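Quick one, tokens below. Sequence please?
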């Protein structure tokens, strides 16, 4: 091959490579468009399905006792807090997507609800409409097993930590559902500044933007997750570590300062057998 033939061959090889690159790019773009075209109807179907769901649901626990739920729509939020008042285990803040709709109880589980299914009331501060307390994570699991019989067509369980924080924030990225100021917390929560050293009947304070009461304060609420440190990667429907020693509690209580009642605050001290007069529970229901 002489020099001019070599030059011609190199030019042809270059041209071929360029054609292949363009073809690959066009193929990838076509595939991307196809995935996008596939995703859009799915998202539209999900939205239509959620739009068709009842905004509220009520479970009949018998003997005139009910449990009310609010529909929580899928969406994304920034989970955790890196503000100057946050704790180390609230970091790093990361994007979390809640992909599926769920129903969250409007109120903490009350003593009359607990007693109607369990036949006893372990609470220190007695009152049928007050939140049940002195309930361990394991006892809440037993309560949910009994509640399943009353929830035809629905699965009932504890919220994941991500679901809990998503529902508590109700669209807010601030320290509390109403903003960053501790001064406004008394409108939404029973905490050490205003509780007079006891729990209060559920639903007496303002609801958050999604219609949930007492997410901040009154009693801590057990979540389904084992306690673990956050990663930095975005996650969809995280459920926490697969094993651990302590279950997570959220929301603060009548005995706590405002800082523990923040949306991102995590209580990581207690094992599943532990119970105390500031610890209660809230239920999630999911359509089967
Ligand atoms: Ca609470």
């Amino acid at each position: 091959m002489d020099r001019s033939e070599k030059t011609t061959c190199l030019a042809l090889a270059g041209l071929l490579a360029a054609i292949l690159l363009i073809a690959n790019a066009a193929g990838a773009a076509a595939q991307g468009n196809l995935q996008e075209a596939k995703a859009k109807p799915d998202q539209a179907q999900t939205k239509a399905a959620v739009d068709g769901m009842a905004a509220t649901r009520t479970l009949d626990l018998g003997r005139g006792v009910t449990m009310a739920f609010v529909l929580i729509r899928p969406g994304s939020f920034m989970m955790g807090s890196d503000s100057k008042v946050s704790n180390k285990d609230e970091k790093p803040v990361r994007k979390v997507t809640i992909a599926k709709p769920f129903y969250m109880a409007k109120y903490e589980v009350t003593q009359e609800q607990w007693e109607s299914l369990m036949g006893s009331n372990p609470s220190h501060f007695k009152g049928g409409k007050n939140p049940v307390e002195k309930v361990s994570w394991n006892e809440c699991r037993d309560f949910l097993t009994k509640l399943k019989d009353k929830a035809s067509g629905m699965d009932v369980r504890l919220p994941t930590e991500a679901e809990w924080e998503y529902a508590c924030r109700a669209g807010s990225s601030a320290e509390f559902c109403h903003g960053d100021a501790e001064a406004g917390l008394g409108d939404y929560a029973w905490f050490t500044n205003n509780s007079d050293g006891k729990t209060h009947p559920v639903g007496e304070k303002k609801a958050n933007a999604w219609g949930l009461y007492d997410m901040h304060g009154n009693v801590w609420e057990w979540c389904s997750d084992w306690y673990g440190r956050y990663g930095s990667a975005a996650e969809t429907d995280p459920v926490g570590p697969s094993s651990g020693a302590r279950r997570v509690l959220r929301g603060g209580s009548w005995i706590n300062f405002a800082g523990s009642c923040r949306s991102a605050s995590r209580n990581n001290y207690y094992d599943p057998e532990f119970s105390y007069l500031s610890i209660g529970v809230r239920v999630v229901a999911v359509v089967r």
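Residues 108, 214-215, 217-219, 221, 251 surround calcium ion (CB under 6 Å). Residues 3-40 form one domain.
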